[in-house]
Amino acid sequence: MIPAFIITGYLGSGKTTLLLNAAREHFSEKKVTVIVNELGEVGVDGKVLKNAYSEVLELPEGCICCTIHAEFEKAIRELREKYEPELLMVETSGSAEPFPVMISLQNLGCVIEGVICLIDAKNFHLYSQEDTAKHQIGSSNVLVLNKTDLVDESTLKQVEDSVVEIWNRYLLRNLFTNEPVFKGFKLYKTSFGKLPAEVFSGVFALQEKLYHLNGETHSHNHAQQVVYLDEPIDYSELIDMINKLPQDVVRLKGVLKLKDFPEALVVNYSFGNLDTSYTLPHYEGKSFLVLIRSLN
User: Fold this and answer.
1) Residues of the domain holding 185
2) Alpha-carbon torsion 123, 127, 132, 138, what sign?
């Protein structure tokens, strides 16, 4: 049976950064396969992760917890037969709920080693009332308060209290016994998604069998638009573009070729914060940006 981790968390919470750090710090001697799900037709995270993991499969154009559920299960079967990974990491989209993914993994013979939910400590107040965010927290047994370097102790305590309250209210329960699926959770406070080795040691493995409550899909409340750029641009043009974004754009990510810069730049923007700390040295595709808009 293949051990598997699910990495969940709202838009821009730091899931891909966590996976990059885990590859460097914990998985250098393991044969790890990553499945990355992004709602739009073009994926960004998978392109970044391919520099860190031997096998990365991108599942764009839908959500693995509902609209492309069958494709997700097919992908796991093929990965298991073709690559025989020692460990499977599943990064869900920021709009996905973990529960259906957990069931699929169990049904396909995977052992769920942990469901890790990242919470953006700086911007949690902007999305804490979203149902998807609440279910992501309640369906996880490893809660990670990320980006703690960007908030003071008072704010961090408020976020922690709110997250714990949400977990207790939205925690997964056994369909037949009404008992909690997870007997508790472990909470970590970190920056850049860095976690200790114990998280990946198996101590958070799920012991019981899960059952699907129903076949309904959930609402994502987001729309996506992809913008392609034929020519390299100046960094100042990127900043100007971001400053002019409509207020309903909650997330922007992409890969850009810049003038007078040899490597393609990975762009991550969410809730007013821009991160361009990653590059893709051998990227040969077109420059593109994915804009994610709130429909609320």
Assistant:
1) 2-200
2) positive
